[in-house]
Amino acid sequence: MKRTVLAAARVAAAGISGLAAVMIIGSGSAQAAPQDCVVQRDLFGASATCQPDGGSNYVLHVDCVGLYASGPFPMYAVGPYYSLSYPFTPEGQQITAGCTGMGPGILAVATNAYVEVYRG
Protein backbone atom coordinates (compact mmCIF):
# COMPACT_ATOMS: atom_id res chain seq x y z
CA MET A 1 0.00 0.00 0.00
CA LYS A 2 2.80 2.42 0.92
CA ARG A 3 4.57 1.63 -2.35
CA THR A 4 1.47 2.49 -4.34
CA VAL A 5 1.04 5.80 -2.52
CA LEU A 6 4.73 6.67 -3.00
CA ALA A 7 4.56 5.81 -6.70
CA ALA A 8 1.44 7.96 -7.13
CA ALA A 9 3.14 10.84 -5.29
CA ARG A 10 6.19 10.60 -7.57
CA VAL A 11 4.03 10.62 -10.69
CA ALA A 12 2.08 13.64 -9.38
CA ALA A 13 5.30 15.52 -8.53
CA ALA A 14 6.74 14.82 -12.00
CA GLY A 15 3.50 15.96 -13.63
CA ILE A 16 3.41 19.19 -11.65
CA SER A 17 7.07 19.89 -12.51
CA GLY A 18 6.31 19.34 -16.19
CA LEU A 19 3.27 21.63 -16.05
CA ALA A 20 5.36 24.34 -14.40
CA ALA A 21 7.87 24.17 -17.27
CA VAL A 22 5.07 24.35 -19.84
CA MET A 23 3.48 27.33 -18.04
CA ILE A 24 6.70 29.30 -18.40
CA ILE A 25 6.90 28.56 -22.13
CA GLY A 26 3.18 28.22 -22.87
CA SER A 27 1.62 31.59 -23.63
CA GLY A 28 1.72 33.59 -26.85
CA SER A 29 0.11 33.69 -30.27
CA ALA A 30 0.08 30.79 -32.72
CA GLN A 31 0.03 30.55 -36.49
CA ALA A 32 -3.32 29.78 -38.11
CA ALA A 33 -3.65 27.47 -41.13
CA PRO A 34 -5.99 29.75 -43.13
CA GLN A 35 -4.32 33.10 -43.81
CA ASP A 36 -7.41 35.14 -42.92
CA CYS A 37 -7.51 33.89 -39.29
CA VAL A 38 -5.88 35.27 -36.14
CA VAL A 39 -5.24 32.83 -33.28
CA GLN A 40 -4.52 34.06 -29.75
CA ARG A 41 -3.31 31.47 -27.24
CA ASP A 42 -3.21 31.87 -23.48
CA LEU A 43 -2.15 29.50 -20.72
CA PHE A 44 -5.35 27.41 -20.65
CA GLY A 45 -6.80 27.69 -24.17
CA ALA A 46 -7.06 29.77 -27.33
CA SER A 47 -9.39 31.89 -29.40
CA ALA A 48 -9.59 32.47 -33.14
CA THR A 49 -11.14 35.18 -35.26
CA CYS A 50 -11.52 34.50 -38.99
CA GLN A 51 -12.76 36.86 -41.67
CA PRO A 52 -15.73 35.84 -43.86
CA ASP A 53 -14.64 33.63 -46.76
CA GLY A 54 -17.84 32.58 -48.48
CA GLY A 55 -18.79 29.47 -46.54
CA SER A 56 -15.81 27.28 -45.58
CA ASN A 57 -16.05 25.70 -42.13
CA TYR A 58 -13.20 25.76 -39.62
CA VAL A 59 -12.30 24.13 -36.30
CA LEU A 60 -10.05 25.63 -33.63
CA HIS A 61 -7.63 22.90 -32.52
CA VAL A 62 -5.87 23.34 -29.13
CA ASP A 63 -3.11 20.94 -28.04
CA CYS A 64 -3.04 20.45 -24.27
CA VAL A 65 -0.90 18.62 -21.72
CA GLY A 66 -1.85 17.78 -18.15
CA LEU A 67 -4.45 15.89 -16.13
CA TYR A 68 -7.53 14.91 -18.16
CA ALA A 69 -10.53 12.59 -18.00
CA SER A 70 -9.58 9.43 -19.92
CA GLY A 71 -12.88 7.62 -19.58
CA PRO A 72 -15.95 7.53 -17.38
CA PHE A 73 -15.58 9.39 -14.09
CA PRO A 74 -13.33 8.90 -12.01
CA MET A 75 -10.75 7.67 -14.58
CA TYR A 76 -7.96 10.20 -15.18
CA ALA A 77 -4.65 10.23 -17.05
CA VAL A 78 -1.69 12.60 -17.34
CA GLY A 79 -0.28 13.50 -20.73
CA PRO A 80 -1.05 15.20 -24.02
CA TYR A 81 -4.53 15.51 -25.54
CA TYR A 82 -6.39 18.00 -27.72
CA SER A 83 -9.52 20.09 -27.52
CA LEU A 84 -11.64 21.18 -30.50
CA SER A 85 -14.16 23.96 -30.94
CA TYR A 86 -17.39 23.25 -32.72
CA PRO A 87 -17.11 23.74 -36.49
CA PHE A 88 -17.78 27.35 -37.41
CA THR A 89 -18.14 29.45 -40.55
CA PRO A 90 -16.04 32.61 -40.31
CA GLU A 91 -18.05 35.78 -39.79
CA GLY A 92 -15.48 37.89 -37.96
CA GLN A 93 -16.74 36.46 -34.65
CA GLN A 94 -14.38 35.03 -32.03
CA ILE A 95 -14.49 31.28 -31.24
CA THR A 96 -12.75 29.71 -28.22
CA ALA A 97 -11.58 26.29 -27.06
CA GLY A 98 -9.87 25.45 -23.80
CA CYS A 99 -7.93 22.77 -21.96
CA THR A 100 -10.03 23.12 -18.79
CA GLY A 101 -13.71 22.38 -18.31
CA MET A 102 -13.45 18.83 -19.68
CA GLY A 103 -14.46 17.31 -16.33
CA PRO A 104 -14.04 17.87 -12.59
CA GLY A 105 -10.49 18.49 -11.37
CA ILE A 106 -8.91 18.90 -14.82
CA LEU A 107 -5.56 20.71 -14.72
CA ALA A 108 -3.91 21.26 -18.10
CA VAL A 109 -2.19 23.94 -20.15
CA ALA A 110 -2.28 24.80 -23.85
CA THR A 111 0.91 24.03 -25.79
CA ASN A 112 -0.25 24.88 -29.34
CA ALA A 113 -3.30 26.20 -31.17
CA TYR A 114 -4.28 26.52 -34.82
CA VAL A 115 -7.28 26.66 -37.14
CA GLU A 116 -8.07 23.71 -39.41
CA VAL A 117 -10.35 23.59 -42.44
CA TYR A 118 -13.27 21.32 -41.54
CA ARG A 119 -14.33 18.82 -44.17
CA GLY A 120 -17.35 16.91 -43.07
Task: Give an account of the 3D structure.
By secondary structure, this protein is α+β, with helices and mostly antiparallel strands. The protein has one domain (2-118). The protein is built from 1 helix and 7 strands. The strands form 2 sheets. Strands 1-2-3-6 form a 4-stranded antiparallel sheet, with no helix packed on it. Strand 2 (37-41) and strand 3 (45-50) form a beta hairpin. The radius of gyration is 17 Å and the shape is elongated. The protein starts with a helix and ends with a strand. Mean pLDDT is 75; it is low at 19-33.
Summarize the structure.
The protein has 1 helix and 7 strands; from the N terminus they run H-E-E-E-E-E-E-E. It is an alpha+beta fold and 120 residues long. Strand 1 and strand 2 form a beta hairpin.
Describe the structure using short key phrases.
four-stranded antiparallel β-sheet, 120 residues, signal, alpha+beta, three-stranded antiparallel β-sheet
Runs in which pLDDT lies below 50 for 5 or more consecutive residues are 19-33
Individual helix count: 1
First-last Cα distance:
49 Å
Oligomer: single chain
Helix and strand run: HEEEEEEE
> Rg from C-alpha positions?
17 Å
Content of β-strand: 35-45%
Total domains, how many?
A: 1
Shape: elongated
**Roughly what is the average pLDDT, rounded to an integer?**
75
Q: Which strands sit side by side, in order, in the main sheet?
A: 1-2-3-6
Compute the number of strand runs.
7
Helix content: 10-25%
Tell me the structural class.
Answer: alpha+beta
What summary fits the major beta sheet? 4 strands, antiparallel
